[in-house]
Every structure is written in structure tokens, then in C-alpha cells.
Design brief:
2 copies of one chain form a homodimer.
Chain A: H1 11-25, H2 31-37, H3 42-45, H4 52-67, H5 77-94, H6 99-103, H7 113-126, H8 130-150, H9 160-164, H10 167-175, H11 182-203
The first copy, chain A, binds a DNA duplex through residues 1-4, 7-9, 30-32, 40-44, 46-48, 51-52.
Amino acid sequence: MPRPSTPKLSIDAIVDAAITLAEQTGGLFTMADLAAALEVRPSSLYNHVAGRAEVVDLIRHRMHEEMAVRIDPRADWRTVVRESARAQRDALARRPWLTMLLATSPAELGAAASSIENIAFVLSRAGFRDADLLQIITAIDIVAIGASLDLLSPERLYPRDVLAESASLSRALRHAPRDLPRAESAFVFAVDLLISGLEQRLAAGNPPAFPASPA
Amino acid sequence: MPRPSTPKLSIDAIVDAAITLAEQTGGLFTMADLAAALEVRPSSLYNHVAGRAEVVDLIRHRMHEEMAVRIDPRADWRTVVRESARAQRDALARRPWLTMLLATSPAELGAAASSIENIAFVLSRAGFRDADLLQIITAIDIVAIGASLDLLSPERLYPRDVLAESASLSRALRHAPRDLPRAESAFVFAVDLLISGLEQRLAAGNPPAFPASPA
DNA sequence: ACCTGAACACCGTTCAAGT
DNA sequence: ACCTGAACACCGTTCAAGT
């Protein structure tokens, strides 16, 4: 029974199924699996999308929408930095294997632009130099992306025999906090370092060259 | 002429060719291409490696070796942090599309363990708490990995029409430094922020809870 | 021990045929 | 307009056959 009166497929349904599939299998989906999940033959998909690459693009677009945070332009800049890093990391952390899709995303940042505009506004008002704004925003990105990839690493990073010969390292591991997963607490720690560094930069009168830089 | 007196293939030759291929094509290699580059039929490869997955594992191992830095245990901790972040990012930056391989690497950190031991030693001697060492080391990782992925983003991130409506953002872009590529200067900036944050943490007497954390 | 050619299942994609 | 089945080129992998 080809061509039912009401279409079985839609772009949204395809993207939904692809994301669900990616979540279940851990990052890969085949057109065959995608078709099966939608109870359709593979060739039917091509009536709605140009190919697998377009499905990936659509997923990417969906993720960028998820990452757009509502930033209150009157909030404290520390809160804004912390919350935007958090929102971005959480969106990636929910599907860490898709981080790679985002990293290679060309320009696609239209959806996120309004939140970025707000971040830039808040930072600017807080007293940061125009010349630093892009770097600060990118630094937040870097930490969010790096932290979500870090999430793919196993909880125990070092084999036992390595630790036997590494006094400082094994001491570090023995004393590491256990209330949160390693990747989670490291993310919070890194963001706090970032904010603390920014505070110091503001306090130092916003120097053109970063004080710690030339060493 | 099958079976020449001297073998045409070796594991090292296969890994070398696979890396070269990955560099040229931008991250993907097929067994067919790999065989062709080695002037051999695809099936020959299976006399030396179990399959494509093992080649990927071998590449990963090679990269971890490259990332192991010689750390002078007597150096200043700031220098150590900066140099180890740099070494790790550069190794990834040379082949950014392989960063994903590293991110998912299970445990493989034997090769890097001695440099990490040295970093932990230096940080510990500088006065950082045992409970913070793993988080500091992971924060360095996060920035290095995030920065190398950032390298895959295009130089111009925001489409023109977006900028028209974003006053602060477009002002940020106009004033952004142009002496270095965006990804490069953002990496240096982020590492400097990290170090600056760590300095402040030391100066504050190494508080158990990070000062900036609860907000 | 190691290279080869033929074969397999699977992949993404195309397209004429149906309604 | 939209689903289908048959077909294509390509992929990773296996294996008996060669030396």
C-alpha cells in the first residue's frame, strides 16, 4: 500500500527518530535503522531529506536551539558566565557523542546568536574591554565543549600498575572529591577558575596584555 | 606474485599510512584507501591488524605518546601548566579531526602517566591541596581538548544578518585582536585565565570550597 | 608467514513504478 | 505528493588458494 492518504513521514519525525536512535546506539545511525524505526523503507526517507548528511545537519540545528539560553541582561556577569557555560555543557552532556557534530558546525550559530549577544552585552557593561569579549565568549565555549567530551572518558582514568610508580598522582586520586563524578566536578572547578581569573582581570584594571601571559 | 621474500607490510607502516591518509582526507580512512596507499590488496591488511578498529586504536596510542611532555619537576608551576596545556593542544591541533578518537580513549593513559605524575608533583609542591590536584589536571585537559575542537570551527562564526541585530556582539567582533587566529588567541586567553584563577586560589589560602562557587 | 582474488553482508543513494 | 522494490557502487571482513 504505497502513498497513504496521510503521509507517514515528516522532517520533524525523521529528526526525532534520528536523535532517539543516536541516543540508544551511542552516536551512530544508519539510514536503514532510521527507516525501520519509522516503519518505512529506506528509500522513502529521500522524499524528505537529501541524504544522511542533511539529517546530521538538522540534528545539529536542533542542538543549537537547545543551547540558546535565556540570559537576563540585568544579571550579574558571573551568573551569566556560569549559567551559559552550564547550559551549553548540559545540552552537550545529554548526548556527548554528538559534540563532534557541533564542533564542526559551520556558522549555524544563528539560533544561539541572541544569547551570545546578551552575554556580550552583560560582559561589556561589567567593564570588560571590547577587545576581550570574543575571547571570553570563546573561552566559555572551549570549557563547555572540552568538559562534555571529558564526559566520554571513563571514571577511572589510570591503570593500577601506572599508579604504583606515581606517588603524587596516586595521592591526588586518593584525595579527589567523591561527592560528584570526576567530569562534573572538574567542569565546575574549571568554570570557577575562569570566573576567578576574569575577576582578577577586572580588578587589575583590565590590562591590554594579560598579566600572567608572558611568564 | 604473492608472498615476497621480504614482507611488504608492518604494523608501523600501516599506522603511518593511516595517519597520513587521515591528515590528507580530513579524518576518515577506508581500508581500501589504506591498502592502496601501501600498494597492497585490502585483505592483506588483516594479516597484521584485526581490523579497522585496531588501526584506530593504534593511532590513538601514537597520539598519546606524542602528548607526553618532558616536565622539569623543578620548574615554576605556572610554566608547567602552560606548557602541558600547550603540548596537549598542539598535538591535537596538528590533527584536530582525531581529537574525537582521543576523547573516547579508555584508560590508554599509561604513556602520558609520567608527565601527569610530574605535573601533580609540581602543583603539590607549589602548595595546592591534594583534593584539588585531579581537578586542576582535568581542567587543563578540558581546555586543551576544547581548544583543539574549537580549531575546527570556521574563522568567521556569525553570519552577516545576525550581526546586524546584535550591537554588542558585532562591536566585540570589530574589536577582536587580529594578530592571531581566533582559536589560537582564545586558547592562550583561556589558559591565562586558568592560571590567574589558580594564583588567586593560592593567594586566598587554598580554600576548601572555591570562593566564586556558590555565587 | 604473508599476499591474493573471490565472496559476503551491509551501507547510502537512485530511480522507475506504483497510487 | 509520497511510498516501494530493485539496482548500484562502496564499505569492512572472511577465507581458501597460492608461494
